[in-house]
Amino acid sequence: MARIVNTQLLQKIKRHGAGGTLDVSACFNCGNCVAVCPLAEDSAGFPRRMIRMAQVGMEQELLASEDLWRCYACGECTETCPRQADPAAFMAATRSYAIARYDFTGLAGLANRSAAGNLAVFAVFSAIFGVLLAAKQQAVAPSAPLFNFLPGEWIHHIGVALFVVVGLSAVFGMLSMFLRFRAQCGRKAVALRLSALPGALVQALTDALMHTRFQRCADGERTPAKPAEPLLKRPWAVHAAVMGGFLAMLAATTLDYLLKPIGSPVAPWYPMRLLGAIGGLVCLYGLAVMLGRRWKASEVPWKKSSFADWFFPLLLAATVLTGLAAEVADYAPLGAFGHIVFFAHVVLAMDLVALLPLTKFAHVLYRTLALTLFAWSHAPAAETAAEAEA
Ligand code: SF4
Ligand code: SF4
Predict the structure, then answer these.
(1) What structural domains and CATH numbers belong to the chain?
(2) Is the pTM of this model over 0.90?
């Protein structure tokens, strides 16, 4: 099959980089970045190989590669690149480009390319959810319970519709990535055995939840001369706090819905309420360290973050903060202010879900899929009957 070359590929990826400063044309393929990358040992060498693909316009191969998502953005490669080609930023920009290309609506491209596009998509979603919620808003006294002001059933109905739409969008995006990957396996004659899929899935989920690869990456396994950071400040621990806190809040919300009537009052020590509050605080800790580190890094020219890098953690932090404030307002009524905070929290939480397949948040989907595909395509070949007997 003829290979399709996209001569504009590098330019397109560049638009997804921070401030448009990304330039990997200086790369002369020395391989330093591969040597220092803590995660490149079991493949043919990323990030150098990915840069080469972009330089020669191999878009399909780049978008089919699970290596793109096996990088955890530690920045080791950038620090040792003799040409200041910034391979870590290249990997991040290419992931953002891939999210845009996997999405069929075109919204991910708009949201990831520029701050204006990102804010426009956010504003449109916020307006839609705001109008939908306002349609059923009740006129109540400032001291009335929060769910008298916004009916729980109505929030639930919008939430279910939202999850269906976002779920379909996520499935299409992941399917787009998978079909590219499968076509690539066909070209390389790599067999994908269905029987090896459950094991690959378990391995990928364990990796993702336990941060096993991230620990190797962020603890600088191949650069041991670096002083280790305190445990709770290590990038993988901070990421685990954000993810674990988020999952705890998600579990609390889901169980709350399943185990009791929507919006019915509970004591502060009700287990689901406690789980949500603790999850929120843990998540906020992780986000504060993450954003502080990003702020500090932005003083270094080649460590600048794109708007999309800032937007997702800030949106998550705003959602958690308004959620915690709404919980306080549930026990110690804050008057009309409590109602406004609750309204804002519900809109932000819906924005967060709606933007899942379109923004940096999508790494949750694509990284997990990439880890699965990697484990699947590298599963040991099945024993033949003759080998088994021997
Ligand atoms: S990105 Fe830098 S370190 Fe990596 S191959 Fe290119 S020049 Fe070498
Ligand atoms: S950022 Fe870290 S994990 Fe990613 S390619 Fe560079 S060294 Fe490897």
Answers:
(1) 9-102 (1.10.1060.10), 107-377 (no CATH)
(2) no
